[in-house]
Amino acid sequence: MKRIGLIGVCFGMILLLTGCGKKELRCSMSEDSIDYQMNLTFDSKDLLDTGAMRQTYKLDEDEEDTLEEGVQYLKKMFEDSDEYEGFEIRVTDNGKNEVYVDIAFDASELSEIMGEELDESATYDSIREDLESNGYVCK
Q1: What is the pLDDT of residue 7?
Q2: φ, ψ for residue 90 (rounded to 5)?
Q3: Which of 116, 70, 110 is nearest to 87 (CA)?
Q4: Is 40 helix (H, G, I), strand (E, B) or coil?
Q5: How crowded is residue 123: how many other Cβ atoms within 10 Å of its Cβ?
Q6: What residues are paired with 26 via a beta bridge?
Q7: Which of 35, 97, 130, 132 could, after both became Cys, cross-link 56 (CB 3.0–4.6 A)?
Q8: What's the DSSP call for residue 33?
Q9: DSSP state at residue 123
Q10: By the 8 A CB rule, do 70 and 97 touch?
Q11: Strands in 1-139 per DSSP E
Q12: Three-state DSSP class for residue 97
């Protein structure tokens, strides 16, 4: 009987350490020449924990000459984002015809950035419903 209890405790520790209590929401949307991808994680209480988003801008052939200018413009636009802890924006490109804006955040730091508290309504279901009503496809 002690052996079964020990196995149960070990299994519980493994679940605890690997974060199996977290939910993940993956959503995407395409609009004109921009693709949006969003990956959100939720804690064991179903509240928003972290997020990562990628916006991919696809340039037309006649716009490819301005790729470097566009990347520099976006980098300058987001250069102040470094002052916020738990929030990171990176702008990169593929050297051809795509510009990527990657945003990563920790939900516990969002209230400082937004200037208001993130309330308890930021749950998996409410966020999924909101994203889907705005055209995102979520899995």
Answers
A1: 42
A2: -125, 140
A3: 110
A4: strand
A5: 16
A6: 39
A7: 35
A8: T
A9: B
A10: no
A11: 23-31, 34-42, 48-58, 87-93, 98-106, 137-138
A12: coil
What is the strand order of the sheet 87-93 is part of? 87-93, 98-106, 48-58, 34-42, 23-31, 137-138
pTM: 0.74
pLDDT attached to residue 133: 96
Domains recognised in the chain with CATH numbers = 21-138 (3.30.1830.10)
Tokens 């928003």: give the residue. Answer: 48
Distance between CA atoms of residues 121 and 2, nearest Å: 43
Q: How many CA atoms lie within 13 A of 108 on its CB side?
A: 2
Bridging pattern class, strands 98-106 and 48-58: antiparallel
Report d(CA 110, CA 86) in Å as an integer: 8
In Å, how far are 24, 35, 122 from 19, measured between CA atoms? 11, 29, 20
Tokens 């209230």, located at residue = 111
Residue owning tokens 């937004």? 114
C-beta of residue 58 within 8 angstroms of C-beta of residue 101: no
Choice among 63-72, 77-86, 95-104 with the minimum mean pLDDT: 77-86
